[in-house]
Amino acid sequence: MFTYQMPTRIRFGTGESSQLPDELTKLEFKRLLIVTDPGIVSTGIIDPISESLQKSGIHVETFDQVAQNPRDSDCLYGTEVFQGIHADAVLAIGGGSAMDTAKTIALLAKSGGNPSEYADGHRPYQEMAPVICVPTTAGTGSEVTRSAVITESFTHRKMTLKHEKMRPILAVLDPRLTVSVPASVTAATGVDALVHAIEGYTCTITSPISKAYGAEAMRTIIPALPIAVSDGKNLEARTKMLEGSLLAGLCFGNADVASVHCLAEALGSVYDTPHGIANAIFLPHVLRFNAQDNIALHADISRLMGYSNDAQDDDHAVEQLINGVFAFTQSLGIAKLRELPDVNERDFDKLAALAFANGSTPSNVRTITLEDYRMILSNTYHHA
Ligand SMILES: [Fe+2]
Predict the structure, then answer these.
(1) Which of 46, 141, 310, 378 has its CA 20 to 30 A from that of 351?
(2) If you measure from the C-alpha of residue 84 to the centroid of ligand 1, how many angstroms do you get, rounded to a whole number?
(3) Do the beta carbons of residue 317 and residue 291 sit within 8 Å?
(4) Three-state SS at 339
(5) If you measure from the C-alpha of residue 141 to the centroid of ligand 1, how many angstroms do you get, rounded to a whole number?
(6) Distance 291 CA to ligand 1 centre (A)
């Protein structure tokens, strides 16, 4: 038994972002709030889009105060800006942080309250302003998902707001916009997309549709990511990565993520670690833990990712998967846990508790306890 819902219109292709004025005019939007971050503004991506929209008669205001791990306070401030200009819709241009902030602003502007109230189930998701997403990284897939991850400022807790109403109405994916992303961010966001495919494929609430998307995402990302990292101007690799992250979004967006994300979000909330880097650090260690009870499933993943073939038995395929993923993340230059600033073993009990309390813990394919999280943290920290 499963349900699969995807109302987002998707436009994909080089140069497609130039179609935004046409698309938004058809939707009869007159006043738009662009949500982005200062890094994106400095790449010069925003100005031409904003100017082309204004030429089409759409009033545009830009809110560029999005943080790396977006905070509730930013969303509340953005909501005031949205209401101040009487906007009809929110246009997110950026990575997952911009898109998640945009979704949350669109929710707060129409349904009131603050992000914690929704995450804790104290306020119903009533109405949303329409959200349009233009991703500039190949990573989060947030352009097609129903969730937003927001940090509660005073507790540093990462909260997930999740509702079918939060799905964007339109996603415009233009690989050209991802060409200027630095190699380190390309690597981190690309591994995030890979983890979405793996966790969406393996989680307890997956479906045949999610698995089909996840399988294709894994097959697409593994060969494309090293090229996109080493040769950022390679438009073919950038296109494949944007395709892979979209497919991964379509995979987990109707399923869930699992323990890699639970640990990554805990790390991000305590040390502000970029999401993709945190995911990459934990991925091989969680795979090793999960595979112990789910050998055939992980052998499948190993074959999908090209680390083994049908001629090899499942045990061998799983071994190849773990070794292959370790080598893959290392080749992309991902830091080790103990190399990250401020990370201290004294915090591991707190990190384990945060990961265990994450709403996606029950979705992990292998039942995982607080002690298991503690053990994985320790293994990751001490791994050579
Ligand atoms: Fe993610």
Answers:
(1) 141
(2) 32
(3) no
(4) helix
(5) 8
(6) 20
Selected from 3.40.50.1970, 1.10.40.30, 3.40.50.150, 1.10.520.10, the CATH number assigned to the domain covering 9-178 reads: 3.40.50.1970
Summarize pLDDT for 294-347 with one digit per residue, the tens.
999 999 999 999 999 999 999 999 999 999 999 999 999 999 999 999 999 999
What separation in Å is there between the alpha carbon of 193 and the centre of ligand 1?
A: 7
Domain 183-382 sits in CATH 1.10.630.10:
no
pTM: 0.95
Report CA(221)–ligand 1 centroid distance (Å): 15
Segment 273-283, tens digit of pLDDT: 999 999 999 99
CA of 248 to the centre of ligand 1 (A): 10
Domain ranges of the chain: 9-178, 183-382
- Helix (H), strand (E) at residue 49: helix 46-55
Phi-psi region at 276: left, alpha or beta (left = phi > 0; alpha = psi -120 to 50)? alpha
Measure 276 CA to ligand 1 centroid, in angstroms. Answer: 7
Same fold, 9-178 and 183-382: no
